[in-house]
Write a structure and sequence with these properties.
single chain, two-stranded antiparallel sheet, three-stranded antiparallel sheet, 114 residues, Arc Repressor Mutant, subunit A, alpha+beta
Length: 114
């Protein structure tokens, strides 16, 4: 793009690339990824959509303390992003089966890998 700065001078301005904003993903992040631990959990489940594990196992995989992760896991269950089931050895967490939720969480993980 060229801008006429004055009658005797022309200035070239670099054009900014246009990127479409993924409004659905942005809204999802603003609503559910409200802290870094929760962000890590969402990315973990986006990269491993079939994962099912307890809080300690997930915490070890993402490098965080189990006490912090367990609270965030339970919050994500309450919000409908994850499911929790007691398999006799304690609560195990997995990504909810809702197709829209699964797609968005996996899209978030892909975007963080890019």
């Amino acid at each position: 793009m060229t801008i006429q700065a004055s009658p005797a001078r022309t200035v070239r301005v670099a054009e900014m690339p246009t990127h479409e904003v993924d409004v659905e993903l942005l809204t999802f992040v603003e609503r559910y990824a409200t802290n870094l631990a929760r962000w890590d959990l969402l990315v973990f489940f986006g990269r491993n959509p079939s994962a099912r594990d307890n809080a300690l196992g997930i915490a070890q995989q993402i490098g965080r303390r189990a006490q912090i992760i367990e609270k965030e896991l339970n919050d994500l269950v309450y919000l409908g992003i994850l499911r929790a089931r007691d398999y006799g050895g304690g609560m195990q967490y997995e990504l909810a089966r809702l197709p829209g939720t699964r797609r968005t969480v996996m899209r978030l993980a892909r975007r963080t890998d890019a």
